Each structure stands twice: as structure tokens, then as C-alpha cells.
Amino acid sequence: MHRDWDEHYASGHTPWDRDAPAPELVHQIEAGHLPRGRALDVGCGTGTSARYLASLDYDVVGIDVSRRAIERAVSVAPPPGVSLEFRQLDFLGGERPGGRFDLVFDRGCFHVFDHADDQARFAAGVADCLADDGLWLSLLGSTEGPPRDHGPPRRSARDIVSAVEPVLEVVELRSIEVDSAPPTRVRGWLLLARRRSVPAQPSTT
Q1: Contacts of 61 (CB under 8 A, 6+ apart)
Q2: Is the pTM of this model over 0.85?
Q3: Is the residue at 203 inside a domain?
Q4: Number of structural domains, the chain?
Q5: Closest by Cα among 125, 204, 100, 185 to 138
Q6: Domain residues for 161?
Q7: What is the CATH number of the domain that holds 86?
Q8: Assigned domain for 18 exists
Q9: Which region, left, alpha or beta, applies to residue 81 given φ > 0 means left and ψ of -120 to 50 means alpha?
Q10: Would the N or C end of the chain have less CB density within 10 A of its end CB?
Q11: H/E element holding 128?
Q12: 3-class DSSP assignment, residue 50
């Protein structure tokens, strides 16, 4: 699926863009479930979550394929003393911000890719960026819940694990409610994954 993300921002059709960090991200941080240090926000949009992480003393890089999104992100002055940088990068296309990150976060970026090869390439990109003890937190839509004609793309547990398992270890995958537009809550997934210490082994036959 090809989308002109700049056109979305130009037209104002950005239902994924929020003026507050994802409640699930806030909860995971406040519960002490996520490592501190260097953080990468993939598909950062206008930078809400990246600014939130920077306010907690993370060293943050926010990336997005959309030039307009990054322009809006950098137009908001960060609080003094925080470490926050925004870059226009095509993550799926192989562009990387450089270095390793203790936390990789995406709020609805992984799930926009329809094809299994693209999903696997995204997960491999996360693996490239994660520190040895780092974690990837992804919030995405699920196939659970009643039919709907709005909200995040639907992805099954099989879609997610098939993409992630070859390069990353699934730490947690559970059903949650995620915010959607118009303002409502729909069923989604919370994924936590980390770099593998040993390769995934073939299924037993």
C-alpha cells in the first residue's frame, strides 16, 4: 500500500496524530516496564510521544517519512535541557538514524504495512536499531472486536509473530484498547519485543 503521507498532513487528515502521548506508553513507563536511555520514535508524526519521552530524560530521535510531519515536529520548541532530534527518514526503505537504542517505540507505524515482506522488513529494521537489552514497544490494530469502517488497520497475532519472530523475541503480545478517531476506543495489540540472544529455531516436525 502506497500512501502520500505529506498529502495527509497537508489536508489535515491525520486521525492518528494526537496532542498527548499514548496512554499505553505512559503506563508502561510509569510501571517501570521500559528501559531508560536512548529512545527512537518510528513514525513520530508531529512529535508528541518523542517530546514526552524527552521530558523524562530520554535521549530521543524521532523519525518520519513525511517531510511535513517533521517540519511540524521541529516547529514546536522543546523544553530547555532536553535531548531531542527529529529527522525525515524512510525507515522501511532502510534509512537508519545511527547507533543503538534502549527503547524503540511506534504508535501505529508497523501496522500500516499490508504485505508480510514489508512487515518483516520493518521488524528487521527495529532489530538493527535495538541495543542488546533494549525493547520495542509497538501499539497496533487487531482483528478482534466487531466490524468497523474506521480506525487502525487490522493485524492478526499470526501477522505480528510471523514478522517479528525470525529477528526478535516476543516478550509480550496482549489485547488492549487503543484510541481511534472519531474519539473512541477500539481493540488493538500491545507488543513488546527484544533482540534475540540466539536465533529462532525451526518448528518441530
Answers
A1: 38, 39, 40, 41, 50, 85, 86, 87, 97, 101
A2: yes
A3: no
A4: 1
A5: 125
A6: 5-195
A7: 3.40.50.150
A8: yes
A9: left
A10: C
A11: helix 116-129
A12: helix
| pLDDT tens, residue order, the chain (205 aa) | 346 777 767 776 666 677 789 899 999 999 999 999 999 999 999 999 999 999 999 999 999 999 999 999 999 988 889 999 999 999 999 999 999 999 999 998 999 999 999 999 999 999 999 999 999 999 999 998 888 887 888 999 999 999 999 999 999 999 998 876 666 778 999 999 999 988 888 889 8
Cβ-in-10-Å burial (0-12, 13-18, 19+) of 34 comes to: buried
Q: Report which residue type is found at 150.
A: H
In angstroms, the CA 136 to CA 66 distance is: 22
- The grid coordinates listed for 183 are 474519539
Complete DSSP assignment for 132-185: EEEEEEEEEEBS-SS--SSSSPPB-HHHHHHHHTTTEEEEEEEEEEEEETTTEE
Query: Which residue is associated with the grid cell 487490522?
Result: 154
Indicate whether 204 belongs to any domain. Answer: no
Quick one: cell of 111?
Answer: 501496522
